[in-house]
Design a protein that fits this description.
By secondary structure, the protein is mostly helical. It is built from twelve helices and two strands, in the order H-E-E-H-H-H-H-H-H-H-H-H-H-H. Strands 1-2 form a two-stranded antiparallel ribbon. The radius of gyration is 32 Å and the shape is flat. The relative contact order is 0.12.
Length: 368
């Protein structure tokens, strides 16, 4: 028993970081879906609500499996908007590479009889591939990402409704409702994420281009690493805002502040969720065929899972912040009451000691 008490005493108290930035908000209540009239006087039955785990990320995976058909139909509209990305990656790279590189690639110049000088250089060709071709492709992909980013709003909105079991059947209408409500917010957030990724990717391809020629320096390595260090927290904030935008009743400014607060108080789960969300970039960077395979996997499942993951992260983060706020509010109130009581007792006038009465025998008192 003494050991248990000693252990409890040593437990660190949870701190509520950036409490002044936090805005307490409720989950957004969505308008009820209008029932479809099947026959005069009869309407289509609403989808039944299913029982899913309460644990946040377990719930997200369970919802994905249980609502796969509905989520895929909703995701389809985002896939159409994102097709420009894969078209730019495959077709754009092929055309730019053919236009800029060209040549016969005679790498045997000056070697043996019949091979005069003036041929192509492998190092220069690969450097041109990195520094010029890939750079143009990155700009095409960045434009495609910005165009597709507003359409994420409908996908996240549908993921939020599925996560909280706010069931729906009219997936086209549901997607359009989310798009109308939040498209401009996702355009801003998507543009910021795209700018960060473009800056980091450009620095990396320039480093690879110079490295092929043996011209890289420590400054070039720093220029490739620093944007990632600075950019990752920015990407985390934007992704957290995407989740909070559809889940809670907050203004855009409040969403930004709450996203920072959620990250500060979830320093393990948010970075891990952000890192997992960025994993597909590796597949897109590995070449044409890996990029196509990655896109197909993302279209089938990845986009929905990422949306559900950030909805779950928003739910977890806000519940934790609500608990911390409630705990510290009660603690502060108790401390204020304790201080007020101590102050009252300190300032209270001292009571005069009452004079002791002489003892009188009760028996003698009766005789009188």
């Amino acid at each position: 028993m003494a050991t248990q008490n000693k252990f409890n005493a040593k437990q660190r108290e949870h701190k509520f970081f950036l409490e002044s930035w936090y805005t307490d908000a409720d989950i957004v209540v969505e308008p009820a879906e209008k029932a479809k009239v099947v026959v005069a006087g009869m309407v289509e039955a609403k989808p039944e609500k299913k029982e899913y785990p309460d644990a946040y990320f377990k719930r997200a995976f369970a919802v994905f499996k249980g609502e796969f058909g509905t989520m895929f139909k909703t995701t389809f509209w985002f896939i159409i908007a994102s097709l420009l990305f894969i078209v730019g990656l495959v077709l754009g790279r092929t055309l730019i590479e053919k236009h800029l590189l060209g040549g016969t690639y005679n790498f045997m110049a000056g070697i043996g009889v019949g091979y005069p000088g003036g041929g192509d250089s492998i190092d220069q060709s690969v450097s041109l591939l990195y520094g010029t071709v890939f750079q143009y492709v990155l700009f095409i992909l960045a434009g495609a990402m910005i165009i597709a980013s507003p359409f994420l709003s409908g996908l996240f909105y549908a993921a939020k409704r599925a996560y909280y079991q706010d069931t729906y059947k009219q997936f086209i209408n549901t997607y359009s409702v989310g798009f109308k409500k939040h498209w401009w917010k996702y355009l801003i957030l998507g543009t910021i994420i795209t700018a960060v990724l473009l800056g980091e990717s450009s620095a990396v391809v320039q480093l690879l281009s110079l490295k092929q020629l043996g011209l890289e320096t420590a400054g070039h390595y720093a220029a490739a690493i620093l944007p990632a260090i600075v950019g990752f927290p920015i990407v985390m904030v934007c992704l957290a805002m995407m989740g909070l935008t559809v889940t809670h009743q907050l203004t855009f400014k409040q969403t930004f502040k709450n996203a920072v607060v959620v990250i500060a108080n979830n320093l393990f789960f948010v970075p891990v969720t952000a890192a997992v969300s960025l994993v597909p970039i590796v597949g897109f960077a590995m070449g044409t065929m890996p990029a196509i395979i990655t896109y197909l996997v993302m279209a089938a499942a990845g986009f929905s899972l990422i949306a559900l993951g950030w909805v779950a992260m928003a739910d977890r983060g806000m519940i934790k912040c609500k608990s911390l706020k409630k705990y510290y509010s009660k603690k502060h109130l108790a401390e204020v009451r304790k201080a007020a009581k101590a102050n009252t007792e300190y300032n209270a006038p001292a009571k005069k000691p009452q004079a002791k009465q002489a003892y009188q025998n009760p028996k003698k008192k009766k005789k009188k």
